Amino acid sequence: MRTILITGPGGSGRTTIAAATALTAAREGARTLLLSADTADTPGTALACATGPAPTPAAPGLTVWRPDAAARFREDLTAFQDRAANVLDLLGAARLDAEEVTPLPGAEELSFLRALRDAALSERYDLLVVDLPPLPQALALLALPEELRRYLRRLLPPERQAARALRPVLGRLAGVPMPADWLYETAARWDVELAAVQAVLTDRDTAVRLVAEPGPAGTEAVHTARLGLALRGLRVEALIANRTLLEGAPDTWLAHPAPDPGPATGLAPLLSLLAQQRKALADWQESYDVHPVPHLGRDPHGGDDLGALAVPAVKPELDPVEWPVTDRIAEDGVLVWHIPLPGAVRDDLDLIRRGDELLITAGPFRRIVPLPSALRRCTVSGAALREGELRIRFAPDPGLWPAAGR
Question: For residues 253 and 29, what is the distance between their CA atoms, to the nearest angstrom?
Answer without folding.
Answer: 31
